[in-house]
Amino acid sequence: MTDVSQRIKNLNREQRNAVNSILEGWDGRQDEFILPIVDGPPGTGKTTVGVLAASQHV
């Protein structure tokens, strides 16, 4: 398991769901990307979710 995969596995359920939604957006039809909105108060992991999703994609 890669370091990124392990870090995703260690996220809470809501964060993992957000990462999965972002990754599914990269597989949109006709090469489109559907950008999910990750919303929440400061300190809830929004940046971490985005960084891990992008890292997992590349």
TrEMBL record:
SUPFAM superfamilies recorded: P-loop containing nucleoside triphosphate hydrolases
UniProt cross-references to InterPro entries, sorted A to Z: P-loop_NTPase
Stated name of the protein: DNA2/NAM7 helicase helicase domain-containing protein
Organism: marine sediment metagenome
